[in-house]
Request: fold
Amino acid sequence: MNIYVCIKQVPDTETKIKVSGDGNWIDTAGIKWILSPYDEFAVEEALRLKEKNPGSTVTAISAGPARVVDAIRTALAMGADNGIHVEIPETADSNLAAKALAGALKKEAKVDIVFSGKEAIDDGAAQGSQLIAEYFGIPYVTVVLNAEYSASSVKCKREVEGGAFEMIEVQLPALIAAQKGMNEPRYASLPNIMKAKKKEVKALKMADVGASESDQKIRFKNFQLPPPKQAGKKISGDPAAQAKELVRLLHEEAKVI
Amino acid sequence: MTWQTFLFIALAGGAFGYSGYRFSLLFRMMKAHQGKGPKLDRIPERIATTLLNVLGQQAVLRKKAIGIAHTTIFWGFIIITLGTLEQFATTIYEPLNFEFIGQAPYRALIFTQDLFTFGILLALGYASYRRFVVRPEGLGKSTDANLVILITGTLMVSILLMNAFHILGTQPWFKDSLPVSNFLSEKLAALGLSQEGNHALALVFKWIHMVLVLGFAVYIPSSKHLHIVAAGPNTFLKKLDRPKGMKSINFEDESIQQYGTAKITDLSWKDTLDYYSCTECGRCQDLCPAWNTQKPLSPKALILDLKDNMYRNKDKILAGKIDEVSAVIDQNVTEDVIWACTSCRACEIACPVFIEHTDKIFDVRRNLVMMESKFPAEVQTVFKNLETNASPWAFSASDRANWAEGLNIKTMAENPTVDVLLWVGCAGSFDDRNKKVLRAFTSLLKKSGTSFAILGNEEQCTGDSARRIGNEYLFQTLAKANIETLNRYNVKRIVTACPHCFNTIKNEYKDFGGQYEVFHHSEFVAKLISEGKIKPSKGIEESVTFHDSCYLGRWNGIYDEPRDTLKSLPGIRLVEMKSHHDQSMCCGAGGGRMWMEETIGKRVNITRTEQALETKAGVVASSCPFCMTMLSDGVKSKEMQDKVRVMDIAELIDQSVT
Reply:
């Protein structure tokens, strides 16, 4: 099988986000970049599918500035065979990234299945997967907890609102977007880390994949940090007075009731 | 030349020939191991250690009664072997006795032999009493051991009877020099045998003795009694560096394809010598915190199981088919066994023949982690945190210096000319309880007028846990980054309140170009007190028990400084737990266990906390952030937190220095 994984590089979960000088993006200086955790589930799922189908290859694709090659190397170290990097601007939106990734997929001879994370943990837009599938012209299933693969289709168990599950069977080729819990991603072995360092990552420009700046539909500006967390308030007095004060605070200060 | 000559030569030739062949197999198996063995340096020091421990039996004698019994048997064996040689010689050619050394020396020789023969019987009596009546748990049951006691006992009895009948038969000139045999002969005279009868019986017992000796020679290579050959060399080859670090892997060397031990032959020839040296005394097991809390790891069983694995693969190893050797993880040495170790080193300290258990465990872990990515699932988060934020806990690297906010502590970037760098460590930076320890220690440093600074956000985890868990690659990444930073600031002296950071920076960074004078804060505080820079004055009317950190104590030999520091507190009553100093019990957090769930058996920290509570002390003093966490948790589980406080020595001293 020809298995593809679309991945994104994101700031580490512990990063203290700062707004850039012009206010239109975040300050990327000093940020530790990681492979987005949901994409790790996607890579793991791709590798497990490969292991069940000897002779398959797993290709990791990422769109972004030069730094995202590190995320591709992480996927290679986990066991992916090939890497493709499409260079797009730092401030690209989901649409441009999806267009670029779908364009890269179109250049491949045969695509049997595509994996991705259900969302990236930086902007949390949760629309990349759907857009990629749409531009590439294949069906998709998102927020997938479990997948059973057969030669021509995949049975997916996906999470829906209210703690319920939905079972969807989809014909291949299709895109499967992983939810946390789909698997336990492996820790790269050292020989694989070493091999990953030497593997070639195919470098593509936007023009190579039929994407351009005009595919960016969102312009970002005036970023602001959320207000700093207030210290907790202790309400004292007899229970009746406490309840009254609590209602007042929720109504007047928190404005939630 | 008689029939005896020919019979003896035939038997001895056969026995020594076969024994020699068996030894050659053991030697070839040893040589087939591919791991790197120790370097042979510092020969005079090695000779001294060997003399002290082989002839002087120093380590054996750490257990009094059985130590004295063993020493008697050991020295008796040496002296009596001279007599055995004399028996062999006279059997081959009768006049070849040792009387040529002169009457007086000969008398002295046989006098000592006679006494030792009796002494060995007494020692064997005690050993049997211990083995069959007292039955210490660590000793276990062993047919091999029973057989060795039986043979040795029979050997001694046959010597005494041989001598006694010889005295009755020939009344030799030296008979007064054989007090025990002579006494026995007086009793045996009651049998009223003829001279020929006595002669014949002397000969019979001589042959019984000689045949048993030859039999022993055949038996030894396949017995735990092999230690009589291997323990000496093993002592000679022991790691001399205590304090010691772990051995490094050179990742630049592309010829290395295998990291760590996947199969038995990935270990080194020295590890083989360790198995050959083990005589199953069980001292290692007695002190093992894993074994004593029902984990599947026994250091003794580990050594025997590794030996067993090697023997199972004997044919392949001897045939050079190393690729076909089976995995080191088997039904005995399971992954649970390997992960149970807290690397406290109690086993190595206890071992009288200097077997090195921890390096074997570390090396198997290296294979599991780096080659096979197999480790307790919860550790993966720790690795990821270390990789992205250089801390085992999930905190941003940019928050590392937050603990020091408002304390007016300079970073090296702000003041690179200070006398000493304070290495904070991840616990001191991120763990709320241990942040307080750092506050107390920096308060002390300020009161003493010490000029110090921290690295702030430039500090990274030393990599101790990563290394102990087996992720040498991650360790080296962290170590090299830290060394680069330390060397950039030209740091010469470092003080830290964490024994793990202390051990790693002091003993392990030098392999990667980091040479510093490193102090644990207990040493540093002791120094400040002795130099009069701080003076504990406020009394604490409290009994305090000190818990030894393994990486301070057993790994670095620091036992007195923390205690001296505590003793300087007016009013303090220092009480020891039932196990302390080098016999102390681990808190359960070493060897990366800090980051693993403990699901098998009783919790190590609870067991240790119970020992602390038994002292009725109001304060449990610790000198390590991991011990602090484990003991605090233990005291809380025992619901004793209102009565017993767990405190770092720096906190106690800081309270007392006004």
